[in-house]
């Protein structure tokens, strides 16, 4: 299988992966694997944040901590929540966002970069200058993420 096809397969897998409510209950991430992977935060059917991690379960716990996760800080800013108001942040997260993830044992940074380029029109995290000016991903076309076409 080619690298390009593998990246497209991960994108498809994230579209159909089960989604869970972010921060719903104290043990909302207790059954998330500790394995490496890529995760997506969704608002309705639209991806708004893509991340990669060496431990999905640990990273899910970070989603509710402004000191540990950019997405938490961005959410506080977007909803005018004081960064010290963790209950307020958790309330907004659980009412607004869903999470899906896939295990990616090798190449998770490449999967993350591919998805950031593909879905850049809807994401909080935007492509870096290196991604936009580099040639590694010249073949990647941007899509509106709610489209089913890959």
What is the number of strand segments?
4
Query: Could you say which structural class the secondary elements and strand pairing correspond to?
Result: alpha+beta
What percent of residues adopt helix (DSSP H or I)? 25-40%
Q: What is the general shape?
A: globular
Uncertain regions: pLDDT < 50 for 5+ in a row?
none
Number of helices: 6
Beta content comes to 15-25%
Please report the distance between the alpha carbons of the first and last residues. 16 Å
How many whole angstroms does the radius of gyration measure?
15 Å
Task: Characterise the protein shown here.
The protein is an alpha+beta fold and 150 residues long. It has 6 helices and 4 strands; from the N terminus they run αβββαααβαα. β2 and β3 form a beta hairpin. The radius of gyration is 15 Å and the shape is globular. It starts with a helix and ends in a 17-residue tail after the last helix. The model has no long low-confidence stretch (mean pLDDT 88).
């Amino acid at each position: 299988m080619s690298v390009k096809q593998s990246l497209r397969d991960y994108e498809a897998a994230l579209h159909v992966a089960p989604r869970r409510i972010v921060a719903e209950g104290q043990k909302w991430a207790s059954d998330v694997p500790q394995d490496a992977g890529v995760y997506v935060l969704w608002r309705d059917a639209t991806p708004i944040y893509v991340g990669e991690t060496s431990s999905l379960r640990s990273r899910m716990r970070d989603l509710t901590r402004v000191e540990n996760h950019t997405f938490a800080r961005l959410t506080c800013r977007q909803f005018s929540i004081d960064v010290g108001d963790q209950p307020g942040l958790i309330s907004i997260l659980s009412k607004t966002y869903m999470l899906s993830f896939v295990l990616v044992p090798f190449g998770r940074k490449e999967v993350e970069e591919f998805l950031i380029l593909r879905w850049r029109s809807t994401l909080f995290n935007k492509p870096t200058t290196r991604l936009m000016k580099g040639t590694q991903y010249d073949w990647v076309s941007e899509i509106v993420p709610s489209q089913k076409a890959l």
